[in-house]
Amino acid sequence: MISWLKKIFGKEDKFFDLLEAGAQEAKTSVNLLASYLHTLSAGGPPANLDDFVQSRRKEKRIRHEMTEELSKTFITPLEREDIEALSFALYRIPKAVEKIVERLSIYPGRVPHAAFQRQAELLNLAADAVAFMVQQLRGGTHIEKIREANDRLQYAEGEADKVMLTLLKDLYHGPYDAKELVILQEIYEMVEQAVDRCRNAGNIVVQIVLKHS
Fold first, then answer.
1. What stretches of the chain adopt beta strand conformation (E)?
2. Fold of 8-212
3. For 126-143, how does the pLDDT look when each residue is reduced to its tens digit (9 = 90+)?
């Protein structure tokens, strides 16, 4: 009986371990983006994209392992569909970041570093909030801590929308030709979408917590 219980609780820990690892990998990819932008602003050579590719691959392996665990486990600490939804939402964050860096790496014009810097800061704030929220799930879903972190996440998402409007205004009135305008607008939107993906992951955490509160 004791060994059976240990096996069940061990499985519960495994799910939390994988979710936390996924959230941490999402945060790592965002930190890599900030470092990449800093390198560009300092006039350094473009960063190697391998780090971003590896981060996304790690997240993919985590998601694959999560799928395997769900397929062979009957008892889960959270509802199966919630685990699956959160795992997928976390996976989409480094995938989005990798696409942003790929696009920046082939952009032929002058990258407006200052414009991207504020977006990167907000994305980092959002990723930090998500990582914190996912960590709280293991301890029994503390609603107040989750709400505080979600407030930070919603602030980041709201500010990202405002920054996006400002960036578009600067684009439309700035010294950019038509090609540059289209390319930069698309990249700005990709960064905003990465913030939205953090918000989506946070929303899933909130829904999980409300179910168990």
1. none
2. Methane Monooxygenase Hydroxylase; Chain G, domain 1 (1.20.58)
3. 999 999 999 999 876 678
